[in-house]
Design goal:
Chain lengths: 221, 292
């Protein structure tokens, strides 16, 4: 299994570094043709308006929609990536509409309002995945992640519900517009990591912390 | 790394692969955003005009910076004079997203740069070589850009600075532990940072290019040489068709390895800004000599 990292603009280097550490095969995606070589995709943080501008001439938006909707392949969007995947954006802008949520751009304010906080994991899926042997096996076969990786980082207690969240000029999920959307992580009781079928989105940046649980979860989708 | 520096370099990570454009009013800021800029740099005069008009170049009018901040959704940066920590306090109070302690403005302190750890807002600083970059990082800069020669429309100095930086970084990775202290002394750089660069083979903060970039090909050239994003100053709004050129430079920065696409987007961009042969400039007119 190969994870694609959309590399038009944004923190794609931080994402690929993380995948490298996890010994997960990955490749950068610069044009629609590149999508044929990957099984899932990460849309990184960045500036969503710049990303839209870069996608337009090569019809990348259409290709991503096909990848996520028709091919049903997993897509993980962080920050700007979440904005691009959401159905409704405040203020209004174009998007893929692959997950039924409403997102407000820069809702936490400017850079001076960027912050690091401790969030809560509210779904069992992200916790202690060692108890699901079938997952571990799939994992070993398909993405080269094994329990060694999970226990590699002694700083993170894999069973704690606490999770470090980095917010940088972050967007906010204003509403969840379908009962098919599941909440996985919250901060101050607000949804921060949510999933609808094959689409996973985060308003924070797991690629900038040492906690790999969100990655491991995504690689097993 | 401490939390603050993580949040500061974090924003720089988000800007990678993008173009940061100099703008002098809200209208230009909107054009830049629509062209796909990842951030704008608010300043009163672009470097080319500062060069022609002379006089003391200072921090911009807060009114203009506020108008730009209100106009766009992307991050807004602004410049302070080297060493002018009060201008930095003012920009932080305004809530700008990044401060450029810039040689383009007239230095306010001929001995010291700003203590950038004292601020919550992140700083970017110019550098001509690795030693200068590490001194700025040692003072708390969360992003480094080449100085190049701003307002010249001539990319040669940015190329020189980027190549010098990459060459020195590569050299560090070949040195033994016993050579670190003498190298730190030679570079005039903090010992711990020299050891870090030697171990990782890269700067500990994002490394962008600036100074004299005027065409899509210029932007692509710097990306090939190791820049992670580019600043375009006078090159856009001093050219014939700013909108078109801005959009082309945005595409070129992302697709710098795709020569066929570069050929397409370089076509019919209108007049580029008029450039200056830097070897004909007297040394005292070089902006890159400011700072130490």
């Amino acid at each position: 299994m190969v994870v694609g990292v959309l590399a038009l603009q944004g923190d794609f280097a931080a994402h690929s570094k993380k995948l490298q550490e996890l010994e997960q095969p990955w490749r950068l995606i610069k044009q629609p043709d590149d999508l044929g070589a990957v099984d899932s995709l990460i849309i990184p943080g960045g500036e969503s308006s710049a990303l839209l501008k870069l996608m337009a001439p090569m019809k990348m938006l259409e290709a991503l929609e096909y990848f996520g909707r028709s091919s049903d392949k997993p897509i993980f969007g962080t920050c700007a990536g979440m904005i691009l995947l959401a159905k409704n954006i405040i203020p209004q802008q174009k998007s893929l509409g692959l997950i039924d949520i409403t997102v407000e751009r820069n809702a936490y304010g400017r850079q001076l309002d960027s912050f690091i906080a401790s969030g809560q994991i509210v779904s069992e899926k992200l916790l202690n995945r060692d108890v699901f042997p079938e997952n571990t096996i799939t994992c070993k076969q398909n993405c080269y992640i094994n329990q060694h990786t999970i226990s590699k980082n002694p700083n993170i207690n894999q069973n704690t519900r606490e999770i470090e969240l980095v917010f940088i000029r972050a967007p906010k999920i204003r509403s969840i517009d379908s009962k098919d959307v599941e909440i996985l992580v919250t901060f101050q009781d607000q949804p921060m990591l949510v999933q609808q079928k094959n689409i996973l989105v985060a308003s924070f940046h797991p690629e900038l912390t040492e906690d790999n649980r969100v990655y491991e979860y995504f690689c097993n989708l | 790394m401490p939390t603050q520096i993580n949040l500061k370099t974090g924003l720089a990570e988000m800007l990678k692969g993008g173009v940061i454009m100099d703008v002098t009013n809200a209208e230009q800021a909107k054009i830049a955003e629509e062209a796909g800029a990842v951030a704008v740099m608010a300043l009163e005069r672009v470097p080319a005009d500062i060069r022609v008009q002379g006089g003391i170049a200072r921090m911009s009018d807060p009114k203009m910076i506020k108008e730009i901040m209100a106009m766009v959704n992307i991050p807004v940066m602004a410049k302070i004079r080297i060493g002018h920590f009060v201008e930095a306090q003012i920009l932080e109070a305004l809530g700008v997203d990044y401060i450029d302690e810039s040689e383009v403005l007239t230095p306010a302190d001929d001995a010291y740069h700003v203590d950038k750890f004292a601020f919550k807002v992140p700083f970017v600083c110019g550098a001509r070589n690795l030693g200068e970059a590490l001194r700025r990082i040692g003072e708390g800069a969360a992003m480094i850009r080449t100085k190049g020669e701003a307002g010249s429309g001539n990319v040669v100095e940015a190329v020189r600075h980027m190549r010098a930086m990459q060459r020195e970084i590569k050299r560090l990775t070949t040195l033994g532990a016993e050579e670190m202290m003498a190298t730190a002394k030679e570079l005039g750089a903090p010992y711990e940072l020299v050891k870090l660069v030697a171990a990782t083979g890269k700067l500990p903060v994002p490394n962008f290019a600036a100074g004299g970039i005027a065409t899509p090909a210029d932007a692509a050239l710097l990306m090939h040489l190791g820049a992670e994003a580019v600043f375009v100053g006078s090159g856009i709004f001093k050219s014939g068709d700013a909108r078109k050129r801005a959009a082309a430079i945005v595409q070129a920065t992302t697709h710098y390895q795709n020569a066929k696409l570069l050929a397409e987007i370089s076509e019919d961009l209108g007049e580029p800004m008029v450039g200056i042969d830097i070897s004909k400039l007297p040394k005292e007119e070089l902006l890159q000599e400011r700072g130490w």
